[in-house]
Write a structure and sequence with these properties.
Elements lengths: L3 E9 L5 H18 L3 E10 L3 E9 L1
Antiparallel strand pairs: 1-3, 2-3
Length: 61
């Protein structure tokens, strides 16, 4: 059975290029996990109260 993990990355509002910066962080995170043998299951982005952008990442090994 595969082990699933959920990770959360976020950026606060007011940060210039918040979407681009968080997308880059997610890309770097997933590249590192891929090298470790993890498989990406799902990545989703959502705003929290309009003040924070959050990425939910599900991976498994």
């Amino acid at each position: 059975m595969k082990k699933h993990e959920v990770h959360i990355l976020n950026k606060k509002a007011g940060f210039t290029g918040m979407k681009d910066e968080l997308a880059k962080e997610v890309e770097v995170f997933l590249d590192a996990k891929s090298v470790e043998g993890y498989e990406v299951i799902n990545v989703s982005f959502t705003y929290y109260e309009g003040a924070e952008l959050i990425a939910f990442i599900t991976i498994c090994k």
